[in-house]
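One such given next:

>
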Amino acid sequence: MVQITAIIEDDILEKVDIEASKNRISRSKEIATCIRAYFEPNVNEAENIALKGEIESINKILEIKENQIKDFRDQNNELTRMLNQEQVLHLQTQKLLPERLEVQNKSSLWWQFWKK
């Protein structure tokens, strides 16, 4: 390794010191890491390309799931509508039922005249 000397502005040096303390490394190692990252971006670019592919596939899956959720909501609304319709028909049937029972009771009394 070669040792170099450079003139760095104070505000940039403060930022380097903050990052170095976050990463718990020395100031010189932080500067060396920054220089290496500047000249060797290909390593990160390959990772970025892989991550972009993963993001695209996750977005496609998310879109499919959102469409499924929409379909399920539509089906749920249809089933709720049908259930309400069934309940209305059931109530109407129940209203008609006592009238039918009365008619049946009157017609079933024909045999009782024999008892008298």
